[in-house]
Write a structure and sequence with these properties.
The chain is built from eight helices and twelve strands. It is of the alpha+beta class. The strands form three sheets. Strands 1, 2, 3, 5, 8, 9 and 10 form a seven-stranded mixed sheet that branches. The chain has a three-stranded antiparallel sheet with strand order 4-11-12, with no helix packed on it. Strands 6-7 form a two-stranded antiparallel ribbon. This is PDZ domain-containing protein GIPC3.
Length: about 325
């Protein structure tokens, strides 16, 4: 890895504080030709060359394992799975060991959770598999009090525990725990909304088992049972540009959302939790983008179905989202 990074650095300009690194200038020569024939055979004037695409900068990020490690550098990823693979390669571990990542904090802090945006100066901490535990749960009310999210690479985990809820009374269950199985049925590879639906469908009064994997903790993190606050989650980077990651498709370098777009994204994220028991800033951002420039809720629903049809959002959720988008556009949020 060190040799490869040294080879990469020969073609790159120096980096400061996680800033983008751009390839050095490349020599460009035309193909060899027969000069004599070119001087005697008439030819049509050459067409103007197409404008060469502007090269994208090579973005380099610093990373550590959250429980403690040397600092590594990663670049060249285009989606979440590739990001995890790059981190795993730096630290010589399997990508399947990584549960989730936080930005600029080694703690299991859901306000710092890596979502759909990475600021160009953000430091990435990878939380890896720790102890496995099994808990028995008896549902005493319709809702367990869990908010589920996922890492975009097949692992769903607990993002919030509602105070006073069924799960809150089981003190061994913590924010950040990966839900690996329900009643010995593996849910690895399931999206967060699928896991939330399975938990919601568990019958009241009947015990069921959760197999959980907690993130490996550093010494100063042992004994914590963090609970994310109800507001200001997932704050986007304050940098001028961010790398937008997608569960499907490639990453892209984009301007950060405007204050109005940011307000809309947070409101939609709140609605996702209320209706589906999930939080996902990437999903909320996609929903807001689908609602841009739409004239009525029918057009919005059609646009949303074209990109997120698998979710099967209920109509009442769509109308509430449409209302929230209208409130943002009119400055009522």
């Amino acid at each position: 890895m060190d040799a490869q990074m040294q080879q990469d650095s020969q073609n790159l300009q120096p980096m400061q504080n996680g800033e983008a690194m751009s390839p050095g200038p490349q020599d460009s020569t035309g193909p060899p030709g027969d000069e004599e024939s070119q001087s005697t055979v008439p030819s049509a004037p050459p067409l103007p060359p197409d404008a060469a695409p502007c090269p994208r900068p090579k973005l380099v990020f610093h990373t550590q394992l959250a429980h403690g490690s040397p600092t590594g550098r990663i670049h060249g990823f285009t989606n979440v799975r590739e990001l995890y693979a790059k981190i795993a390669e730096v630290f010589n571990i399997s990508p399947s060991e990584i549960l989730f990542c936080t930005l600029n904090s080694h703690k299991v802090d859901m306000q710092k959770l890596l979502g759909g945006q990475i600021g160009l100066e953000d430091f990435i901490f990878a939380h890896v598999r720790g102890e496995t535990k099994e808990v028995e749960v008896i549902k005493t009310e319709d809702a367990l009090g869990l908010t589920i999210t996922d890492n975009g690479a097949g692992y769903a985990f607990i993002k919030r525990i509602k105070e006073g809820s069924t799960i809150d009374r089981i003190k061994s269950v913590c924010v950040g725990d990966h839900i690996e199985a329900i009643n010995d049925q593996s849910i690895v590879g399931c999206r967060h909304y699928e896991v939330a639906k399975m938990l919601k469908e568990q019958p009241r009064g009947t015990p069921f088992t959760l197999r959980l994997v907690e993130p490996k903790k550093a010494f100063d993190m042992i004994g914590q049972r963090t609970r994310a606050p109800k507001s200001s989650e997932g704050k986007l980077s304050s940098g001028k540009e961010t790398l937008r990651l997608r569960t499907r498709g490639s990453a892209s370098l984009e301007e950060i959302p405007s204050e109005l777009e940011d307000a809309a994204i947070r409101k939609v994220d709140d609605l996702l939790e209320s209706y589906m028991g999930i939080r996902d800033l990437e999903l909320a951002t996609t929903i807001v983008e689908a609602g841009k420039n739409k004239k009525n809720p029918d057009d919005f629903a059609e646009a949303l179905d074209s990109v997120l049809g698998d979710f099967g959002f209920p109509d009442v959720f769509l109308f509430d989202v449409w209302g929230a988008l209208g409130d943002v556009k009119n400055g009522r949020l």
